[in-house]
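Readers of this paper often ask what the protein records in our data store actually look like. Such a record has a labelled line for the sequence and another for the backbone structure tokens. Nothing more is needed to write down the fold, since each code stands for a local backbone conformation. The remainder of this section carries one protein's record, kept here as part of the documentation.
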Amino acid sequence: MTIIGQIEGHFVLPPQNKTTKYEHIIPQLVAAEQSKTVQGILLILNTVGGDVEAGLAIAEMIASLSKPTVTVVVGGGHSIGVPIAVASTYSIIAESATMTIHPIRMNGLVIGVPQTFEYLEKMQERVVRFVTSHSRISEEVFKDLMFKTGELNRDIGTAVGGYDAVKFGLMDEVGGIGQALAKLNAMIASNQAADAAMPEGRLTQ
């Protein structure tokens, strides 16, 4: 399964944009979870980010699957692509890939009242909480990367490369498709062995 381009949410993006529509991905994940022939899922991620709630919805769906999942970040897993990347059972990032961590943005009409900033802060906390609970990175380190200045041109945040993503605990391993398939097949084989060892016809404790 591929997640590429911009994550499209409740508003349709211009036709020249390459997009991943969350209303397409979610039914595929449901079908994979229900299928008796699908034993594991490989996700290939190269996204610039996009709609926060749509990205979190995809990430939550991936995290809740009972079947083993492996994510490979190639090119980039930026912005809301970070929660999607860490949502799987095991996450791999290509050596040349990057992940941009920055505060969330808001498009359209913005009302300059305290409630607006409180809403943004709560939305941001949802992202931080999800990432830190599905990876080995601490909240302190993740927020340091998110609010870092001087790293990005005219922006706040950090572009994290492949080896740094593993060093910070964001991703599990630097590699590619070969390592991802090997890991996924190993997890599938482990599940099959566990199922075969379970005695049939009686309860176990």
User: Anything to note?
Assistant: The chain has one domain: 2-6+16-191.
